[in-house]
Design brief:
Blueprint (H helix, E strand, L loop, with lengths): L1 H12 L25 E13 L4 E12 L7 E4 L3 E9 L4 E3 L2 E3 L3 E4 L7 E10 L5 E4 L11 E4 L19 E10 L5 E3 L9 E4 L5 E6 L2 E13 L1
Length: 227
């Protein structure tokens, strides 16, 4: 009895299983596959300065990687609309200039040799269209507080920092964020989503520091999370 009922459910949704007449996917839909990831990112360190007037970020992203595929030579990162200034790689002898290519959406870093572990540092500037949002007072909302907040689900992190931008890719994270003097940074979560000046997503914990006349905040999360 239960089996016949499940078969009727599958027939209504068009699923090919349980004896249904047609496939579940619509005709003409192209299959989508996750791309190969021959390297695993273990830790991400962002050191960024926020430009509130230009609605942009500038700084470095340092990614600790571990080799998965023995013959891989290129690490691919998602990065949309960046001005890539420099890429360096540490394969055990300190950071050295690396060969790379960038098409405006993906950054390929070459020459990783056969090292099992290493670091990649990307110096860049970006004006995010998604993922990181700058808000300020305007004619309609004159008393809106100046703030910046991030929302990277599902794949919007790539608009403001380079990473393997997929919900199933997880790593520990750390961020040093420099903002104008007098501003402050709070951690945001689902219960307190908006914070004054800048709020960072839930994967960051907070510890305060000072750098010259600006405010720098260090965020560290030792629990692996998606970008």
């Amino acid at each position: 009895m239960m089996e016949r009922r499940h078969q009727r459910v599958h027939e209504r949704c068009g699923c090919a299983s349980a004896g249904a007449a047609g496939p579940f996917a619509l005709a003409g839909v192209e299959r989508q596959y996750e791309r190969a990831r021959p390297f695993v990112i273990r830790h991400l360190l962002l050191d960024l300065a926020l430009d509130f007037e230009a609605k942009s970020v500038a700084g470095t992203a340092t990614l600790d990687f571990e080799r998965v595929a023995p013959d891989a030579d290129t690490l691919e990162l998602d990065a949309v609309g960046f001005d890539v200034e420099r890429v360096r790689v540490d394969l055990g002898k300190g950071l050295e200039p690396a060969s790379f290519d960038y098409d405006g959406e993906r950054l390929g870093i070459h020459g990783l040799g056969r090292r099992a572990l290493g670091k990649v540092e990307v110096a860049y500037r970006a004006t995010p269209r998604r993922g990181l949002y700058f808000l300020a007072p305007d004619k309609k909302v004159k008393h809106r507080p100046r703030q910046v907040w991030s929302q990277c689900q599902d794949e919007d992190a790539r608009h403001w920092f380079p990473c393997p931008d997929s919900p199933n890719t997880r790593c520990t994270t750390e961020m040093i964020c420099t903002v104008p003097a007098g501003a402050f940074i709070r951690r945001a979560n689902f219960r307190r989503a908006l914070c004054t000046w800048i709020s960072c997503s839930d994967r960051f914990a907070v510890a305060m520091a000072r750098r010259s006349r600006n405010t720098s905040t260090i965020h560290l999360d030792r629990s692996p999370r998606a970008a």
